[in-house]
Amino acid sequence: MDIDNWDEIRTAFQVARLRTVSGAAEVLGVHHATVIRHIDSLEGKLGAKLFQRHARGYTPTEAGEDLLQVATATQDQLTQLAGRIHGRGASVSGELIVTCLPQMSPLMAKTLTKYQADHPDVRVELVVDIRPLRLEYGEAHVALRAGQPGNDLDNVVQELGTMPMGLFAHRDYIFRHGPLNGMEDIPNHRFVRVTNIDPRAPFMRWIGEHVPDENVIYKCSSTNAVQDAILAGAGIGFLPSYMGHERENMVEVMEPNPEWFSTFWCITHVDLHRTAKVSSFVNFLKEEAKAWPDL
Q1: What confidence tier does 84 reach under pLDDT thresholds 50, 70, 90?
Q2: Would you kindly state where each structural domain of the chain is located, as residue ranges?
Q3: I need a surface site. Which of 25, 263, 277, 285 has the fewest CB within 10 A?
């Protein structure tokens, strides 16, 4: 028999525990007639009497004692489960999934490592992807996204900072091809960019609008590959300013333009935002971001 009405089981459990219809009705907050109806219905479905009715109340039969024993164990297990779930929500431990864009990966690696030093029971998964993961389906707990954050009312959106981007070239490239002398000199140089320009990224839009296709001599399927090519000296291209400045062989070939910069947002789902683990990491992330170079 399939159990399709758990209210009847719950009612029978309280009657078996308290031995009276009135006591069960008071605990359940229902009318005593509802209790009797539930008992009669459940006995009909089971094809067995659960109680002996008499003037002093209801005494469980052997079947009723079986139900009491199983229901009591089930109640204990559910209570323990609720305690474990509450404990997980109140403790800073377990798995933490963070997603970010490739240009944020080096900063996030440092941040997550420092966070785990303070919270060693947290297991981290960093998903580096230009695709926005679906927080509502649990694909990530915390997302770092650039551009417009969207208007999903189920997400909590907090501005994290602005990431400056700069045009850089390796010193070897400049030795071979000379410096970039302003916008008018662009046709005389070799550039690196992603194959498919994302119009949501201001620096990608700029290079698509101002650098002729014939001057793009190296295209890559990802921004990580673009960065590798620029660092190897393949040509001029965009790097996060912090990345270009921390490498002594890289030269910024043009004055930074605020039009290239991207605003980054920290996004969490409303259902997880106030859990101890997510709240703890987001607060840590915001403090760390204040000290990030160029951010």
Answers
A1: low
A2: 6-90, 94-163+262-291, 165-260
A3: 263
- For the chain, the 3-state helix, strand and coil shares in percent, each to the nearest 5, are 50, 25, 30
- Cα(238)–Cα(193) distance, integer angstroms: 8
CATH class, range 94-163+262-291: alpha beta
Same fold, 6-90 and 165-260: no
Q: Residue 123, class by beta-carbon neighbours within 10 Å (0-12 exposed, 13-18 middle, 19+ buried)?
A: exposed
Contact (Cβ atoms closer than 8 angstroms) between residue 169 and residue 232: no
User: Angle 32-46/21-28 helices, nearest 10 degrees?
Assistant: 110
> How much of the chain, in percent, has pLDDT values that exceed 90?
57
The answer to whether the CB of 104 falls within 8 A of the CB of 144 is yes
CA nearest neighbour of 265 among 137, 151, 114, 111: 151
Alpha helical stretches, state H, the chain: 6-18, 21-28, 32-46, 62-90, 105-118, 171-177, 202-210, 223-231, 241-245, 276-291
